[in-house]
Write a structure and sequence with these properties.
By secondary structure, this protein is an alpha/beta fold. The chain has two domains: 10-188 and 226-254, 3-Layer(aba) Sandwich (Rossmann fold); 189-222, no CATH class. The chain is 47% helix and 14% strand. It has a seven-stranded parallel beta sheet with strand order 3-2-1-4-5-6-7, sandwiched between helices. Helix 1 (19-30) crosses helix 8 (228-239). GO terms for molecular function: 3-hydroxybutyrate dehydrogenase activity.
Length: 260
């Protein structure tokens, strides 16, 4: 039914109980990988989500709570997983404000969750990958890892940092069967984005189509959202043999944003 070439591999996906992370985890499970879902909550529905994913694709799926703002919990997540052939660093938060008014606690949290967590999980995962003789590190960066927007200082700095960390990881593993790459999405239609549309329609007195095209996708030349399924498919490709010599680079899934 599926091309399950990842059977026997374990993928740890941070920030994966919704949105992009869940989309990536779903496509990896479809390809046969066992899955570890993660977020900072520890609800019955989080564990039920993992159980549902496992049953749907016939893989082992678990949910492990960990706060990605805490380095020790980031490392513990990978250790609790037991093995980590595929590491997807996806956890992230956002805050928008001018630099002089940007709250220090928001800066610290964004850098910790969006950037430092990827360092800690990678440090814990690489020894496992080396022992297994194979590995894939996939960092979910952003178009903002390659370009910038005003009022997003912490997010842009963190995502540029993720791209840099990806390159260093690739160089340190270049002679091993381990690759490290960053996926750089533009605007993605997630439940969080979908929920923002009605309020934006009221604020600007626009139709849904006008909000999507002229407000949300103003910098995305395709005028279409990327989907979580497309990002998941990109991650699956990076795990394939066809991508064995793709390392230390970025793959933009942004509808032409960074071509401008």
């Amino acid at each position: 039914m599926f091309d399950t070439f990842l059977t026997g591999k374990t993928a740890v996906v941070t920030g994966s109980n919704s949105g992009i992370g869940l989309g990536v985890a779903t496509e990896l499970a479809r390809a046969g990988a066992n899955i570890v879902l993660n977020s900072f909550t520890d609800r019955d529905e989080d564990h039920a989500l993992a159980e549902k994913l496992g049953k749907e694709f016939g893989v082992t799926a678990r949910y492990i709570q960990a706060d990605m703002s805490k380095g020790d919990q980031c490392r513990a997540l990978v250790e609790k997983a037991g093995s980590c052939d595929i590491l997807v660093n996806n956890a992230g938060i956002q805050h928008v404000a001018p630099i002089p008014e940007f709250p220090t606690d928001k800066w610290d949290a964004i850098i910790a969750i969006n950037l430092s967590s990827a360092f800690h999980t990678t440090a814990a995962a690489l020894p496992m990958m080396r022992k297994a003789g194979w590995g894939r590190v996939i960092n979910i960066a952003s178009a903002h890892g390659l370009t910038a927007s005003p009022f997003k200082s912490a997010y842009v700095a963190a995502k540029h940092g993720v791209v840099g960390l990806t390159k260093v990881t690739a160089l340190e593993t270049a002679e091993e069967p381990i690759t490290a790459n960053a996926i750089c999405p533009g605007y993605v239609l997630t439940p969080l984005v979908e929920a923002q549309i009605p309020d934006t329609m009221k604020e600007y007195k626009m139709t849904r189509e006008e909000v999507v095209r002229n407000v949300l996708l103003t910098r995305q030349p395709s005028k279409q959202f990327a989907t979580v399924e497309e990002l998941g498919g990109t991650a699956v490709f990076l795990c394939s043999n066809a991508a064995a010599q793709i390392t230390g680079t970025t793959i933009s899934v942004d509808g032409g944003w960074t071509a401008l």
